[in-house]
Structure formats: C-alpha cells, structure tokens
Amino acid sequence: MKKKGTNLVRGRFLYWKSCQVQIVKTNDTVSGLFLVSWLKLTAVRTYSKQLFIALKHLKDCSILHCDIKPDNILVNGSKNLLKLCDFGSALPAGINDITPILVSRFYRAPEIILGLPYDHSLDMWSVGCCLYELYTGKILFPGGTNNGMLWLHMQLKGPFPKKMLRKGAFTTQHFDQDLNFHATDENLMKKKAVNKLCMNVKPSGVGPKISSLPGEDQKMLSRFKDLLEKMFVLDPQERLTVSQALSHPFITGK
C-alpha cells in the first residue's frame, strides 16, 4: 500500500494518547518521541492537508480505510511528514456488509451506527475527529456505546435528518416509531438498561468547544472551525468531500 507522495504507508505504528504522541520505531524512517499539550494551527493545517491528500489517494484507488484514528497516523522524526497506516480494516468502495462496529468507536461516523450504506464520507468523519483531537488534546465523541455516540453527535450537530433514520437498518435500536431518540444508560445497581426519551436537542456546534490558544491567528481559527463543522455534517451525502477539503480556505490560506 506504500506509494510515494500519497501520505500512505503500511507496517508502521503510532501511539497517540490524549496529549502524548509516541512514535515507536519500526524501521529507519520513523523514530523519536515527543510530548505536546496542543499543536499550533499552522502545524494542524500542515497535517490536515497531508491527511486529505491520503484520503484523495484512497478515493482514487476506491478504498475505504475504515479505521482512521490517532493510533493509525504516523509522524516522522522531523515531525513534518504525516502518513496514514494500518489497512487491516480497509474495504473496497461499493456495496459492503452493514455492521454497527466498523471503525473504532470514538471515530465512528453516524451512518455506520444507524446501519446505512457507507462510502468515503466515513473516513472524512474520522479525520475530523482526529483533527479536533490534534488541536485540543481531547476526544470529541467519547461515547461508551453506539447509543451514547449518537447522543453526542446530536448534541453537537442537532437531530438527524428523518430520511437517514427511515433508511437505517439499526435505527430501531435507538429511535422509537416516531423517530424520537431514546438514550440508553446501563444501570449497574439494577443490572439492566434504562431508556430515557430525549427530545428538543439544542446543538452546540463545534465552535464553542474550541478555545483560542495564545497567539493564534483568529481568522485561521475561524476557518478551522468552519472546516470541522462541514466535516461533521450528519448526512454523509452532504458532508465535506475530499476535493472540497483540499480547497477549503483553512488549507489554502486564501
């Protein structure tokens, strides 16, 4: 899967936990260890562009990565080159089996959880989660279950389009016949699930979750927030595409 200039590799390993990035040396091209509490937007922009280039080549090859997360992103010793690795979950684009557990949970797009057909948009969602985490040092959707993930998605972006819910193979696991969401909490004392009807969701949007760091260019920060908002559109058909991402003002600086 290795191809020069594509920001794609195979057979490397990166461990990235919260504010710690540890690069484990598996050959002479990847080495080092560094700690960060946050990265400046200029660095995030550089890494963002490289991830989008990787997504473009995956799309050109009709491949879905299906497990983009910090663990599967490599940075070289000079910290100026990023590559995507671990294609163990990769699938050919097209008609694939519907499963609610594809992609690591925190980076799992809503269409996977709802049981909808999926395409390259699922990888775009995952990259958005990684970029948010790269800048803030925090996981955006730390849901303990798929049900919890959907609730976090709605708290950020509002109710799901009804057309999505009507087509989802697993919609009834989370929504009633009127398409109202039921949050499920595990009651450890009673050892059973407790359902709670959740209505009138007021989305926060991405912007309020991202604080301005000292010395950051506010125009660039605003563009970064706009990029993430478009990457987290709930409807995969309306989500930012790879070509749109590469031409976004945050990436181009124009």
From TrEMBL:
<keyword id="KW-0547">Nucleotide-binding</keyword>
<dbReference type="Pfam" id="PF00069">
    <property type="entry name" value="Pkinase"/>
</dbReference>
<comment type="similarity">
    <text>Belongs to the protein kinase superfamily. CMGC Ser/Thr protein kinase family.</text>
</comment>
<keyword id="KW-0067">ATP-binding</keyword>
<dbReference type="GO" id="GO:0004674">
    <property type="term" value="F:protein serine/threonine kinase activity"/>
</dbReference>
<keyword id="KW-0808">Transferase</keyword>
<dbReference type="InterPro" id="IPR011009">
    <property type="entry name" value="Kinase-like_dom_sf"/>
</dbReference>
<keyword id="KW-0723">Serine/threonine-protein kinase</keyword>
<dbReference type="InterPro" id="IPR000719">
    <property type="entry name" value="Prot_kinase_dom"/>
</dbReference>
<dbReference type="InterPro" id="IPR050494">
    <property type="entry name" value="Ser_Thr_dual-spec_kinase"/>
</dbReference>
<dbReference type="GO" id="GO:0005524">
    <property type="term" value="F:ATP binding"/>
</dbReference>
<dbReference type="InterPro" id="IPR008271">
    <property type="entry name" value="Ser/Thr_kinase_AS"/>
</dbReference>
<feature type="domain" description="Protein kinase">
    <location>
        <begin position="1"/>
        <end position="251"/>
    </location>
</feature>
<protein>
    <recommendedName>
        <fullName>non-specific serine/threonine protein kinase</fullName>
        <ecNumber>2.7.11.1</ecNumber>
    </recommendedName>
</protein>
<keyword id="KW-0418">Kinase</keyword>
